[in-house]
Design goal:
mainly alpha, 4 helices
Length: about 100
């Protein structure tokens, strides 16, 4: 049996941890993002994030980079909302039959 490791971007990991802080439910966030709760727990403990992952240690060098980070977060949230709406449409259309 082959074990496949997914590679997640730093931005994705930080956003996932923000969601855990915001919602207070690690299992729920892991299910929503379709990742292992153990992986998310390890990220929360600071493992697998690398040595430069502290939010306080991330330095934005320019306004353009800051804007790029903001736009990427906004895009991620918009895609997440879109996926949730797609699932809802599928559920409601099944009820109409």
């Amino acid at each position: 049996m082959e074990i496949r490791k997914n590679k997640y971007s730093l931005e994705f990991k930080l956003k996932a941890l923000d969601l855990v802080k915001e919602r207070g439910n690690l299992l729920l966030v892991a299910q929503e993002l379709n990742i292992s709760h153990e992986t998310l727990k390890n990220w929360k403990k600071g493992r697998y994030l690398g040595s430069d992952i502290n939010s306080s240690s991330i330095k934005v060098k320019s306004k353009e980079e800051e804007e790029l980070i903001r736009l990427r977060k906004e895009l991620y949230e918009t895609k997440l909302e879109r996926d949730i709406l797609k699932k809802a449409v599928g559920i409601f259309s099944k009820n109409d039959r």
